[in-house]
Amino acid sequence: MPPDAYQASGFQGQAVLVVPSRDAAIVRLRMTHDRAAWDLDAFAAAVLAALPPA
């Protein structure tokens, strides 16, 4: 994650991740019953990789 990234974690895997240097906000609203099955860092990395450079 970029050093300026910050996040808020919610109930059952919901999350908001803000990356000012990429002008991006990533929001996940889906419920996760098995926390081991979800990797927020990998998801965020994939989303950021898909975005054009800032």
From TrEMBL:
This is Beta-lactamase. Gene3D superfamilies: DD-peptidase/beta-lactamase superfamily. It comes from the Bacteria.
